[in-house]
Write a structure and sequence with these properties.
alpha/beta, binds manganese (II) ion, 8-stranded mixed beta sheet, single chain, 13 helices, Purple Acid Phosphatase, chain A, domain 2
Length: 332
């Protein structure tokens, strides 16, 4: 059976009714719908961690490992920009693409804050995970950080209170949204090709214990900086000190240099580190092609561009560095 024969009809019917198949996000967001989608996403994420299986790969606490998918789409920071998210999902024809569990859609985190509609974005990603659990992976950004990492631009709690009132809003935030954030994963390794994190790779020396460190990174944060580094680090050029990193001007996290990127590619046997976290003109390449930054929102950052990556199995298997990936990046 050739499924492609059905495509034009499916495309047409879905596009005409619900662009991108993101029908949940087109429906007006209300509290019961949001709670229901959070509850069901939380249930799926908990089950994945318990079973050790996620989207055809393995999960150990906050670390995911996948084989090479047929098609891989990666979306970077969204920051409450539901319009751009809908546009991207429409472009990739998500409703059709995600029905095939050999295709994967991975989000690099930073779903909320800054943009106009964080709740609609949360609703959309939870609905996607619920509808296509075998195809969708939701990673954690610094804007989904534990409350131990406070930062001034976290306007999500205020948005929730605006929507639901103080008492109810506080309850939704504490009992639904924070537990959901806590279940998002910190690192994804695509076999032999890509290492995905939100901010950057940690600067410690882990070598053959890197899997254990990535797995347990989400567990503690008071005496362990790995989660802080994964969520907040940035790649920088020209770091000349012996350690290969400097403290970040963000006041949290670090700037890591090319040697640290190269070490991570070596120990994880991958070719490119893919991360979000910094606005750019869709994408940016650092460290001689070791690192690519992907940014996927427009509305909160009018001076920058949004983009997403869409890469197939053959391209992933032959990728040598970030320059190879740049032709698989689609700017909006
Ligand atoms: Mn970020």
């Amino acid at each position: 059976m050739n499924e492609n024969l059905n495509l034009p009809v499916l495309l047409h019917s879905h596009n005409s009714v619900n662009p991108g198949g993101l029908d949940e996000a087109s429906v007006e967001m209300d509290e019961p719908r949001l709670i229901e989608s959070l509850d069901s996403a939380i249930e799926i994420l908990r089950h994945e961690r318990k079973s050790g299986r996620i989207a055809g790969g393995s999960i150990k606490e906050s670390f995911v490992e996948l084989g090479v998918p047929s098609k891989l789409v990666i979306i970077g920071d969204i920051h409450g920009d539901i319009t751009t998210l809908r546009y991207i999902l429409n472009q990739i024809n998500a409703d059709v693409m995600l029905r095939n569990s050999r295709n994967k859609l991975i989000f690099l985190g930073d779903y909320v804050d800054r943009g106009p509609d964080s709740l609609a974005v949360l609703y959309a990603i939870c609905s996607l995970k619920t509808r296509f659990p075998e195809s969708v992976i939701l990673m954690r950004g610094n804007h989904e950080a534990p409350i131990e990492f406070p930062f001034p631009s976290h306007n999500l709690p205020a948005e929730i209170i605006d929507h639901f009132g103080y008492q109810r809003g506080k309850l939704v935030y504490n009992e639904k949204i924070l537990p959901f954030f806590h279940l998002l994963t910190l690192a994804t390794l695509i076999e032999g090709s890509l290492l995905l994190v939100h901010g950057g790779v940690p600067t410690g020396s882990y070598d053959d214990t890197f899997r254990e460190h990535l797995s347990t990174a989400g567990r503690t944060y008071t005496n362990n900086t790995i989660m802080e580094e994964i969520l907040w680090n940035d790649p920088r050029q020209g770091i000349r000190n012996r350690d290969g990193w400097e403290y970040s001007r963000r006041g949290i996290g670090k700037h890591f240099g090319i040697e640290i990127s190269r070490k991570w590619l070596r120990i994880s046997k991958s070719r490119v580190i893919v991360r979000g976290h910094e606005p750019c003109q869709g994408f940016r390449i650092d460290h001689d092609g070791s690192v690519i930054t992907l940014f996927s929102c427009q509305e909160p950052y009018p001076n920058f561009q949004a983009a997403y990556m869409s890469v197939n199995e053959q391209e992933l298997k032959s990728v040598e560095d970030a320059v190879d990936l740049s032709s698989q990046i689609y700017k909006l």
